[in-house]
Specification:
By secondary structure, this protein is an alpha+beta fold. It is about 40% helix and about 30% strand. Strands 1, 2, 3, 4, 5, 6, 7 and 8 form an 8-stranded antiparallel sheet that branches. About 35% of the residues are buried.
Length: about 210
């Protein structure tokens, strides 16, 4: 039987959002780096909060988290999580320097990383906005450096007030001799998540 007209489920929708968003992010990153950027097929999942710690190992290792608040018709937050070595490699390529020349405490390094995330979040939210016809705005990013365990505790506290799930998009971007892997956590509040699924013709129960 031809199932081309079968109803979309959550996994279909989330995968499509992740794929289109990653493509736009790759294009934006390529423009910034001046190099072709290739992307892997995104791993996109809607993860219950209680399972979030399984996504990150090494709980005592430092991570850089860049948070962006959402506004407009969608409320919530987008967080990008980077290992320090990945963040330094990306910033070094953008600024024409060597990764070892950077300290994660360097204001210039932090500013460049926040600018990258601002552009990447814009790419993902643009994809979502185009698919749903929902207006999405976002705030200036903020950067936090902390251990994974502390980061997860904070995310739990913030998200749990408005949602019990988080949308996770994991994509590997490759630019010439550099691989850039980051973890995007999209945590809209429950009314916003239902609005997204409704706009895409997906029952929240699916």
């Amino acid at each position: 039987m031809d199932d081309i007209n079968r109803p979309l489920n959550k996994l279909d929708v989330l995968t499509e959002i992740g794929t289109i968003g990653a493509g736009k992010a790759a294009t934006a990153l390529a423009d910034m780096l001046g190099n072709k950027v290739e992307i892997s097929v995104p791993e996109t999942r809607l993860v219950p909060l209680k399972e979030l710690p399984k996504l990150l190992d090494e709980p005592e290792k430092p991570f850089l988290v860049v948070d962006t608040g959402l506004d407009g018709e969608i409320g919530g937050k987008v967080s990008f999580l980077f290992k320090p070595e990945v963040a330094k490699t990306l910033a070094a390529r953008l600024m024409g320097q060597k990764p070892e020349d950077f300290s994660i405490e360097d204001p210039l390094f932090q500013s460049s990383l926040k600018e990258v995330v601002n552009i990447l979040v814009g790419a993902y939210m643009s994809a979502l906005s185009e698919m749903t016809d929902i207006t999405i705005m976002f705030s200036v990013p903020t950067l936090t450096i902390d251990m994974v365990a502390s980061i997860l505790d904070f995310i739990f506290t913030e998200i749990a007030m408005n949602s019990d799930e988080v949308l996770v998009v994991k994509t590997l971007l490759k630019a010439t001799d550099m691989e850039f892997e980051g973890l995007l956590l999209f945590h809209p509040d429950d009314p916003s998540l239902k609005k997204i699924f409704a706009a895409l013709g997906v029952s929240d129960a699916k």
